[in-house]
Amino acid sequence: MPLWVREDGELRSVMSGIKKSVISTLTNPSAIQITASGIASDEQADHLAHGGIEKALYAYPIEHYPHWTDYLSQAKKTTVDLPHGYFGENLTISGLREDSVFVGDRWQVGGIECVVMKLRTPCYKLTARTGVNTVGKEMVRTARSGWYLRVIGLGSICAGDVITVISGPREISILAQNQDLLKSQSYD
Q1: What distance in Å separates the CA atoms of residue 188 and residue 186, rounded to the nearest whole number?
Q2: Helix H or strand E encompassing 180
Q3: Does the pLDDT value for residue 72 go beyond 90?
Q4: How far apart are CA 52 and CA 101, in angstroms?
Q5: pLDDT at residue 46 is higher than 80
Q6: pLDDT at position 3, please?
Q7: Is the model more confident about 42 or about 151?
Q8: Domain 2-184: what homologous superfamily?
Q9: Do residues 19 and 111 make contact, with C-beta atoms less than 8 angstroms apart?
Q10: What is the DSSP letter of 51?
Q11: Is residue 12 pLDDT above 80, yes or no?
């Protein structure tokens, strides 16, 4: 799907998969087929930055949505309504956040198994999606990045499936990755 970005004063179109549509909800759950590269019906426009096997699924906590509603509403000076999937996530989840998720943790969700790979680093496409130049820095500053998952056991999932976490080596959390990125300021 095309996304319009401004670069060097010029408006141009780039391919992006950041605009997601909800396909399974708690009130209308439906089985979603998961392949090694992610959701079977999903598009990934940039397999190096936001897709491929190592970044097959992007999980994002629903608990972050109130912050973003306030932040983006203030920045745009109008009330913003953010549907699930707004940040390009495939999985809008509840109960897990960056401080409790570690690289190498395995997840069993519905009929699939995944491994936590790394934080999502914000890029210019998130800025274009939101229309707010500071959104990437805010995402890292507040450690509201979400994280990527690699699918290691194929099957299907459904809204409402429980996430069972099998602890990995617990060497680095997604929060710690955010803090390291903030120190280096090598994002956006």
Answers
A1: 7
A2: helix 174-184
A3: yes
A4: 21
A5: no
A6: 41
A7: 151
A8: PK beta-barrel domain-like (2.40.33.20)
A9: no
A10: -
A11: no
Average pLDDT over residues 97-113: 98
Nearest-angstrom CA–CA distance, 38 and 55: 8
Side-chain-side CA neighbours of 52 within 13 Å: the count stands at 7
Side-chain half-sphere CA neighbours of 94 within 13 A: 7
Please report, for the chain, the start and end positions of each structural domain, with discontinuous segments joined by +: 2-184
Give the pair of three-digit tokens for residue 188: 């956006």
Alpha carbons 179 and 188: distance in angstroms, whole number:
15
User: Residue 69: beta bridge partners?
Assistant: none
The tokens describing 28, both together, are 């209308």
Write the pLDDT tens digit of every residue in 129-167: 898 999 999 999 999 999 999 999 999 999 999 999 999
Q: Which of 155, 146, 168 has the alpha carbon at shortest distance from 93? A: 146
pLDDT tens, residue by residue, 32-41: 999 999 998 7
- Is the CA virtual torsion 176, 143, 99, 24 positive or negative? negative
108, 129, 128, 104: which is closest to 116 by C-alpha? 104
